[in-house]
Amino acid sequence: ETSATLAEFDGNGTTADGHLVPLLANVGGAKDAVAAAGLGAQGVGLFRTEFCFLERDTEPSVDEQAAAYKAVFDAFPGKKVVLRTLDAGADKPLPFLTDATEPNPALGVRGYRTDFTTPGVLERQLEAIARAASESEADVWVMAPMISTAAEAGRFASLCAAAGIQTPGVMVEVPSAALTAATVLREVGFASLGTNDLTQYAMAADRQLGPLAELNTPWQPAVLRLVQLTVEGSAQEGNNKPVGVCGEAAADPALAVVLTGLGVTTLSMTARSLAAVGTVLKTVTLEQAQELARLALSAPSATEARDWVRAKLPVLEELG
Ligand code: PEP
Ligand code: MG
């Protein structure tokens, strides 16, 4: 049930000592974006553009795409909106981009990789994004899903530049990108950790399979270590580029504290979780969050990491 504590949340992500961690929303279209703005989101950290076109068996036109993107941008005038280029494949097939007969779709041509087999679609999407951004007030950032190498990040940045987009970034959701974050981030302006896929690929456990749920949690020490390596990679060579989280991990208030302690700069989540995450974040200082991050990293299992951290956050009891 909604407690008094939740009602007090003012929409701003900050620790008890004033360290800012903007709380952003994950959206799939304009309807979600309007709802998220109403729930106090400070912007959008993940706009899953493929959700706009799941029913389509042909590529949407540039005009049609630009209209769909602008409708989301318009819900956040003056605010940051991080748009992700089409993440087709695996759990989100798009008939005009993906091959339904692939034997291992999660390891197949998905996300950025569809540019290998269907060139042109990404360029046209970037053209639509640039047009929509120029007609809106939002601060539009653009990132590619399923980036595995620095070379891919570099090519994506070039395509963005050619389209007139100055804020290219990548999702870090493949372990290789986390392990090479320093070189990946040399190519682009920011990274956003997709902890759903990062967990799936680190643990070699299909994110949709119930029997593997114990393996498939971002509380796994291996996953937390990959988050830490990404942040450390960003700090190397004076990079210090923003590293956010946009996977479901950010919506778990205790884990949001740990991620903050690991050094992530923004948290993006389903809008209904914003108040709980913001409320819990306000009860710890940055130093306490860092201590909890060390505690979680030292745990021998996901269960212990979660239990140890939760035991140190009494506010969770009030939230129920
Ligand atoms: C993720 O993988 O964590 C993510 C945010 O993207 P999606 O869930 O859309 O794959
Ligand atoms: Mg993903």
Provide structural commentary:
It is a single chain. With 320 residues, this protein is an alpha/beta fold. Helices cover 43% and strands 12% of the residues. It contains 15 helices and eight strands. β1, α2 and β2 form a beta-alpha-beta unit. α2 (30-38) runs parallel beside α3 (62-73), α6 (150-162) runs parallel beside α8 and α11 (253-262) crosses α13 (286-298). The chain is globular. It binds phosphoenolpyruvate and magnesium ion. Residues 145, 173, 194, 196-197 line the site of magnesium ion (MG). Magnesium ion (MG) binds next to α9.
Shape: globular
**Percentage of residues in DSSP E strands:** 5-15%
Low-confidence region ranges: none
Strand order of the largest sheet: 1-2-3-4-5-6-7-8
Give a list of the ligands: phosphoenolpyruvate, magnesium ion
Q: Mean pLDDT, rounded to whole units? A: 95
- The counted number of beta strands is 8
Please give the alpha-carbon distance between the first and last residues: 7 Å
State the main characteristics:
single chain, 320 residues, alpha/beta, globular, binds phosphoenolpyruvate, binds magnesium ion
Secondary-structure topology with pairs:
Blueprint lengths: L3 H4 L15 E5 L2 H9 L4 E6 L13 H12 L6 E5 L29 H4 L3 H14 L4 E6 L5 H13 L5 E5 L2 H5 L1 H7 L2 E4 L1 H9 L17 H15 L7 E3 L7 H10 L3 E4 L4 H8 L4 H13 L3 H10 L3 H5 L1
Parallel strand pairs: 1-2, 1-8, 2-3, 3-4, 4-5, 5-6, 6-7, 7-8
The structure holds phosphoenolpyruvate (PEP) and magnesium ion (MG).
